[in-house]
Amino acid sequence: MNRQQGTSGKGKPSNKGKQGGTNKSSGKGGNNFKSKNVARGNAPVKKTNTASKTSNPDEIRLNKYVANSGMCSRREADVHIATGLVSVNGKIITEMGFKVKIGDEVRYDGARINPEKKAYVLLNKPKGFATTTSEGKGRTVMDLVANATASRIKPIGRLGRNSKGLLLFTNDDAVTAKFTNSKHGVARLFHIELDKNLKLEDLKKIQSGFKSEGKLIEVEEISYIDGASKREIGLKIKNTGNTIIRTIFEYYKYEIINLDCVAIGHLTKKDIPRGSWKHLTEQELNTLKML
Questions:
Q1: Domain limits, the chain
Q2: Per-residue pLDDT for the chain (291 aa), expressed as one digit of tens each?
Q3: E strand residue ranges, the chain
Q4: What is the spatial distance between Cα 290 and Cα 133, in angstroms, rounded to a whole number?
Q5: In CATH, what class is 59-112?
Q6: CB neighbours of 271 closer than 8 A, spacing ≥ 6?
Q7: Which of 34, 111, 145, 206 sits in a 20 to 30 Å window from 69, CA-based?
Q8: E-assigned strands of 64-159?
Q9: Spatial contact of 217 and 181, defined as CB atoms under 8 Å apart
């Protein structure tokens, strides 16, 4: 068989031997064959709407947002959206193809959801770093965990710029809620150094609880540190801020010289050098959620 007969090397019909053996691109011959150029030339040219193809990288389809949160598949998300189970910034959305921004508040059946992968980062904070996500505050703890994850994590609670120790970061609202509940939250253990010895009577008053400006202040435990002077105190408290700790000692006329968070629940500083961080293991996370 001649290579010019039958099919071409690309699997398309060869035009040689038809209409004098030439492949004309005008399309004005009597044959029915038209090349791509001819067909396009005879059809109206459709203008490309570049604006419609431009996508905003900060936006995501609502069904994908819901699916990425781990609640369900994208197809199931369409059903849930259509039945009115999903709201965006307080408004029920039933429109298919609706797009949201990552920062929008999206709720599924009343519970807020997040499309990012859940991340849990434990930092051993050094002095000199502010606990804030705001810019323009000098060195912050966000600088220390910048390379930990692509998820938008935030610190739970606060440690003052001159305080140090453990600080947990996450984008899991359920875990954050456990800490912000002062009665049923997660206790943190602090090693505190005061400017002078803590009197035993003051220690007992702190342990019993007291009112400051009409507000009851309670701690889980307080004790002297074994083998150290009575200036060094161990304090366990469920409140997530360190301002309350300073309030406690200022009430009894003591000044905090050093404050170090040495444990959060069952989490400790073991194998985490100062200024370093680690991701929680699955076992550590499961234990944390059960607290």
A1: 59-112, 120-182+268-290, 188-264
A2: 444 444 444 444 444 444 444 444 444 444 444 444 444 445 555 554 444 445 677 788 999 888 888 778 889 999 999 999 999 999 999 998 999 987 899 999 888 887 788 899 999 999 999 999 988 889 999 999 999 998 889 999 889 999 999 999 999 888 888 887 756 779 999 999 999 999 999 999 999 999 988 888 999 999 999 999 999 999 999 877 778 899 999 999 999 999 999 999 999 999 999 999 999 999 999 999 888
A3: 59-61, 86-88, 91-92, 99-101, 106-108, 111-112, 120-125, 154-155, 164-170, 188-194, 210-212, 215-217, 221-224, 232-237, 256-264, 267-268, 277-279
A4: 28
A5: alpha beta
A6: 278
A7: 145
A8: 86-88, 91-92, 99-101, 106-108, 111-112, 120-125, 154-155
A9: no
Alpha-carbon distance 113 to 105, whole Å? Answer: 8
- Domain 59-112 identical in fold to domain 120-182+268-290: no
* 120-182+268-290 CATH, one of 3.30.70.580, 3.30.230.10, 3.30.70.260, 3.30.56.10: 3.30.70.580
Are 63 and 81 a contacting pair, CB within 8 Å? yes
State if pTM tops 0.85.
no
* 205-243 exposure pattern, b = at least 16 Cβ within 10 A, e = fewer: ebeeeeeeeeeebbbeebebeeeeeebbbbbebbbbbbe
